Amino acid sequence: MASSKPAAIILGGVNTFSRALAQYLVPLEGEPLVSHLRIVDKYSVAPPTVYLGSEFPKVLEKPEVEYRQANLTVPSIVGSVFDQPDGKEPYSYVFDLTGEARNDRPEEVQIANTFNVSRNVALEAERRKVKAYVRVHLPYYNTPDKGEQSEKEDVKPIVPGGVWWHETLRALAAIEDLNLVVLRTGYVYGPYVDYGLFTSAMCITACYGYTKQPLKVMHSPGKHAFNTVHVDDVAGAAWACAEWMAKLGRKEADAVAGEPIAFHNDKSKVKALEGAALPEAKLVAPVFNVVDDSNHTFISFLNVPASFFGTSVEFFDLFTRAMAKINMDELAEDINEEHVGTWTKMITTSKPPVPNTPLSPYVHPQVVGLFEKHSIGLDNSKLKKIVGYQLKRPTYSHAELKEVIDKWKAEQSWPTLED
Fold first, then answer.
1. Contact at 8 Å (CB) between 305 and 189?
2. For residue range 375-414, what is the model confidence (pLDDT) as tens digits?
3. Torsion (CA) 291, 295, 297, 300 in degrees, nearest 10
4. Is 29 left (phi over 0), alpha (psi -120 to 50) or beta?
5. Most exposed among 107, 135, 387, 410, judged by the fewest C-beta atoms under 10 Å?
6. Chain Cα centroid distance, residue 193
7. Cβ atoms of 222 and 69 closer than 8 Å
8. Which contacts (CB < 8 Å, 24+ apart) does range 339-345 have?
9. For the residues of 321-382, what is the DSSP string, one character each?
10. C-alpha span between 291 and 375 (Å, rounded)
11. Domains of the chain (ranges plus CATH)?
């Protein structure tokens, strides 16, 4: 007898948000939302070759969950990961969290790990006639400094990685029978999230709280938008959009929520790339912004952990900012060296010590946000109105940060220091 619950597959993202999505679909307590869940990524989970957090391994023990280690850059492997286990229903919901998570990697890596993987997965999903294909898009856009951009606005992808993440959306939108939904996230935070600027910001502000010095930043006056979203809402929105799409199908979903996906690339590169949509193609797909209601600026985003750890945020003087424009890499390395030294002292003097923590205050100079100006200002009203999704964590505040720190402390990834 067929289950009333769909079978789902999560592809990629174990190093970003797939762990939280898996736990949302098959919670540690309570009824699962799916009849069967397969998670596929390149990482080993036993033994782990990537940070898993303390709860995800428990999710993997659930009878409804299967983890498969596979290299999705190999096209011949992609089809096999969609083959359901004996006695299980075909996968009807696909959550695509694949893609190169480091924006600074060379273009050929971005194409291989982001564009090619996602397109091959999407073509297989179309062939299998899945009811919903949800593509989670990292915040690799730069919006205007002020105001919240709706999904209709043509926001510009950052280079080089953002360009290929965006080009991937065009390739997916061009697959007419793919039941595609695109989720554009803000800066994601939450328990066990060790990817992106959030973790660095937490460690850095903790360092300044420890040394009782103010945190200095580059972007005075720092008023550019910097939207956040809790990882629980990334997971919740992904599920809600899958349910929404499964009821409508692509054609009706495009009519209700379709948005144009404009071209933002080098025409010569795209024309030479197999599977890329033509630059002049007019492509449409359902797109939803997934951000919370905090409406943070860059400075208010930093002020939350700064005040949590007992420090403040100030700006570098004009001379330092001018010198930074000349040699950002050197300044960033000097700052990183100071941060890492303080962090090392914190984790070794912790009671108990935590020398094996996966967390670090180090920020690569090319990481957007902390050193380079980056605005993410998105309007979340469409997700609420059309899908009917209600945020579970509407604000980024001390309460949310305390939960994150408490869970890191419980698994001995965060230092426990005497006041």
1. no
2. 899 999 999 999 999 999 999 999 999 999 999 999 999 9
3. -110
4. beta
5. 410
6. 9
7. no
8. 339/203, 339/204, 339/207, 339/363, 342/207, 342/210, 342/211, 343/203, 343/206, 343/207, 345/210
9. HHHHHH-HHHHHHHHHHHHHHHHHHHHHHSSS--TT-S------TT-BTTTB---B-B--HH
10. 13
11. 7-190+229-293+376-395 (3.40.50.720), 197-225+296-375+404-410 (no CATH)
Please give the Cα distance from 41 to 45 (Å, whole number): 10
Distance CA 243, CA 6 (A): 10
Taking Cα atoms as reference points, which of 139, 328, 321, 308 lies closest to residue 226? 139
| Segment holding 240, helix H or strand E | helix 231-248
Rounded-to-integer distance, Cα 371 and Cα 30, Å: 43
What does the pLDDT look like over 174-230, one tens digit per residue?
Answer: 999 999 999 999 999 999 999 888 898 999 999 999 999 999 887 666 678 899 999
Distance of CA 365 to the CA centre of its chain: 20
3-state helix, strand and coil shares in percent for the chain, rounded to the nearest 5? 40, 15, 45
Q: Evaluate if pTM is beyond 0.85.
A: yes
Which residues have C-beta within 8 Å of that of residue 312, sequence separation ≥ 6?
214, 215, 303, 306
- Tokens standing for 234? 């990334």
φ, ψ of residue 153 in degrees (nearest 5) = -75, 145
Positive/negative CA dihedral, 19, 187, 102, 95: positive
| CA 376 – CA 201 distance, rounded (Å) | 16
